[in-house]
Write a structure and sequence with these properties.
It comes from Tianweitania aestuarii. By secondary structure, the protein is mainly beta. The protein contains no helices and eleven strands. The strands form three sheets. The protein has a six-stranded mixed β-sheet with strand order 2-1-9-6-11-5, with no helix packed on it. Strands 8-7-10 form a three-stranded antiparallel β-sheet, with no helix packed on it. Strand 1 and strand 2 form a beta hairpin. The chain is globular.
Length: about 150
């Protein structure tokens, strides 16, 4: 087994100081090599977060497109199958498929040119199946790449 710490990419949708949603490509880098439960051999484990969480799976039908909106709570979104996109207020559009990760934290945006939060929708000819892990607590301020 390699002792090289892994890096795991994710997209962070956040609100800047001017109230505009933006997206930034980030890397999780804080991993520790340890057993999840002995006698299982060690594996690389990332930081644990102890906020209360709600976990759900959602299915966006083919052709689904949401209106401009904010994420209801800070949340991890992991596509399980199909493809989807997220467009932030600054015009950045990120398309993701299975195994790619996004952290949606665009609460507190200010409407600009009819946009508030983000727009998202499915891509292609199959539904987008997404696992969503919502934090029960909200933050007053967001820092891009806070899970790096």
């Amino acid at each position: 087994m390699s002792d090289d710490k892994p890096t795991v990419p994710y997209w962070h949708l956040y609100t800047d100081a001017d109230g505009t949603s933006r997206q930034k490509r980030c890397m999780m880098t804080e991993f520790e090599l340890k057993s999840m439960q002995p006698p299982a051999p060690p594996q690389w484990q990332g930081q644990k977060h102890h906020d209360g969480m709600t976990v759900m799976v959602t299915v966006q039908p083919v052709g689904w497109e949401g209106a401009w909106h904010e994420n209801p709570s800070p949340q991890w979104i992991i596509p399980l199958s199909g493809r989807w996109y997220v467009e932030s207020m600054d015009g950045t559009r990120v398309e993701m498929g299975p195994g790619e990760i996004s952290f949606g934290e665009d609460q507190g945006t200010q409407e600009k040119n009819g946009r508030k939060g983000h727009m998202s929708g499915t891509i292609g000819y199959e539904p987008a199946v997404l696992m969503v892990v919502q934090f029960d607590t909200k933050r007053d301020e967001t820092t891009p790449c806070r899970f790096s």
